[in-house]
Amino acid sequence: MRYGSVCSGIEAATAAWHPLGWEPAFLSEIEKFPRAVLRHHYPDVPLHGDFTTIGADEYGPIDLLVGGTPCQSFSVAGLRKGMDDDRGNLALEFLRLAKRKRPKWIVWENVPGVLSSNGGRDFGAFLGALVECGYGFAYRILDAQYVRVQSHPRAVPQRRRRVFVVGYLGDWRRAGAVLLEREGLRRHPPPRREKREDVAMCLRGRAHSSHRADSDNYVAVYGGGQTSGPRDVAATLAAHGGGNRQDFEVENFVTTQYGNIAGALTARHDSSPCADRGQNVVAFTQNTTVRRLTPMEAERLMGFQDDYTQIPWRNKPADKCPDGPRYKALGNSMAVPVMSWIGERINKVNALGIGAGCCSD
After folding, report:
1. pLDDT, tens digit (0-9, with 9 covering 90-100), for 275-286
2. Whole-prediction pTM value?
3. Per the residue annotation, which of 7, 71, 321, 359 is the catalytic one?
């Protein structure tokens, strides 16, 4: 598959689809820091600016067009001007580009607020224009916390719901086979993971084990040293304390002194009889002030490899890259495991042929 990516950001699509052997024909982004990330990771891929200026013959033919056009005009946190906002109108520009390039597949992403923007008329206009361009389509809200694929066997530990539209030129059944799973089409949806009251049961907790010295300085995720709930709910970091309460080693991350950023979402003390029970804690600073996520944690929350956004920036080396643009770029990105799941489903549909039931799980 040869694809073009617009509003690329830091390119979750390519991070997800490279293992599938797919080839990016071009990327397109206007923000400075994401462009620097793209140049750093994909120096041989053409990097365009304003995607509305991409011509029909530019960069050659593509099989798929992917993009997450700006969501601010549709978000419930914004003014919700919808298609009256230039950023919202870029959704239609995305389709104009699809009409010029004529890929077989399109994948488009946005926030759930797009469904209710302008009473649903904005999304209806987008889907109507998609049909006018010759595409059959399916759409669905996917939540990243529930999506697992072979390359990401543990779902990302955050609730991130996004609307995905998949289109196929001339045939809605292939689009439906990608997004709509068999159980849902039969009106027998798979079991839904229930919300757990014990996932974040307190803001400041004291473990009930005498082996947990100075446990006031942790916030229990599951609480009480019990193992209720799956390990992958908060799985970005795993920490092991070596029995010395002044040290806190975070596996594959940092070693930090007590009172500074500890960064653990799943932790245990190896010298404790409870070591194999895996108490789950989130570390506070010494004065119990909640810390913010580190950039590496934010990368893991989105499914990117560690230090993906730590790049040389403004004539400074990568280890001096500021946190601010990294947070912003990650917050605007798609979740990599979701894009992996969509790519794998498209591969299955291409291999198995046309039909709403052609893609089994």
Report:
1. 333 333 344 455
2. 0.71
3. 71
